[in-house]
User: Fold GDP-L-fucose synthase from Glycine max.
Amino acid sequence: MGSQDNNVELSSNSFLAYKSAKVFVAGHRGLVGSAIGRKLTQLGFTNLVLRSHAELDLTRQSDVEAFFAYEKPEFVIVAAAKVGGIHANNTYPADFIAINLQIQTNVIDSAYRNGAKKLLFLGSSCIYPKFAPQPIPEDALLTGPLEPTNEWYAIAKIAGIKMCQAYRIQHKWDAISGMPTNLYGPYDNFHPENSHVLPALMRRFHEAKVNGAKEVVVWGTGSPLREFLHVDDLADAVVFMMEKYSGLEHLNVGSGKEVTIKELAELMKEVVGFEGDLVWDSTKPDGTPRKLMDSSKLASLGWTPKVSLKDGLADTYKWYLENVNL
Ligand SMILES: NC(=O)C1=CN([C@@H]2O[C@H](COP(=O)(O)OP(=O)(O)OC[C@H]3O[C@@H](n4cnc5c(N)ncnc54)[C@H](OP(=O)(O)O)[C@@H]3O)[C@@H](O)[C@H]2O)C=CC1
Ligand SMILES: C[C@H]1O[C@H](OP(=O)(O)OP(=O)(O)OC[C@H]2O[C@@H](n3cnc4c(=O)[nH]c(N)nc43)[C@H](O)[C@@H]2O)[C@@H](O)[C@@H](O)C1=O
Assistant:
């Protein structure tokens, strides 16, 4: 990785050796931030700095500056963002571009100005061109047009990667980026329209089972392929990158396994125990046809995922029954 040459002198900060360090996990109540919080707590980190959205709105520059000046976190993980599935991305393009640019710009700049040792920014596999080569290598970035349903969010995420790179180059500051594939797990967003496919189907199948419905509507044609990763695997990868990676280039984080939406729906039906039929609503968009990432760079550093989709779905449904469907 030629780009690493630029950063050799930046890789001296151990993360795991310093469990009393102040670590700011932005977005700690969300799917990803909560998993990172659980992982860091399990590992023995004792000084997590956390603020809910109500306590600190990360789109407000002066509030973010005041927070960083006061807390001066040593490590920063950016898991706060405006996030949603295909419908939300398509319906609220202004929110997806503006809120994400604001949050990430404020957090990255303030972290740098207030002496953080290292920052990890999270993007998403939607940064790649709609028709990127499969599996998608990191260097496919900016080689073609984006998927229209999420280009606004993707542009913000690409700006986040580039901002980390620019601060590395100009300020010799250890900012890195990870690009996760589609995620799922505890504390996901189960909204009927604005969520991602996996929590949306879990809720829809569950409600259909409980209500004795004969059929469940699933969006699109069922043919798109998606790669899913359990959020606990992502949290493990985040800690791994904080410890082991200090490079200019963003790193893909995936499971390496893809399923069609039809296969996902069939698996969900089985896990939830719904016995009716699936009906496909082809008026809804399919989005990108396929986005399997090439995560071999992260694998070559020594990280591998552990949770299978079937086990992950069963665990998440158990969590849903205990926590959401009260
Ligand atoms: N979910 C997925 O499939 C994927 C997620 N990612 C990335 O992972 C990161 C986290 O996503 P995920 O956990 O799924 O999202 P969630 O929506 O579950 O969590 C996002 C968190 O950010 C907080 N937040 C949003 N806006 C603000 C704000 N203005 N000020 C302060 N906090 C705010 C939210 O708080 P509140 O809810 O109170 O607004 C929430 O706690 C994002 O960068 C996303 O791009 C990447 C690939 C896939
Ligand atoms: C993580 C990723 O997430 C988004 O991209 P996406 O992968 O297209 O997201 P999705 O989970 O919403 O849909 C996946 C597929 O599933 C189909 N589908 C069927 N039935 C439902 C359904 O009920 N809800 C949803 N949401 N989708 C459904 C849907 O039609 C599509 O074919 C972007 O926000 C992007 O920005 C991003 O980063």
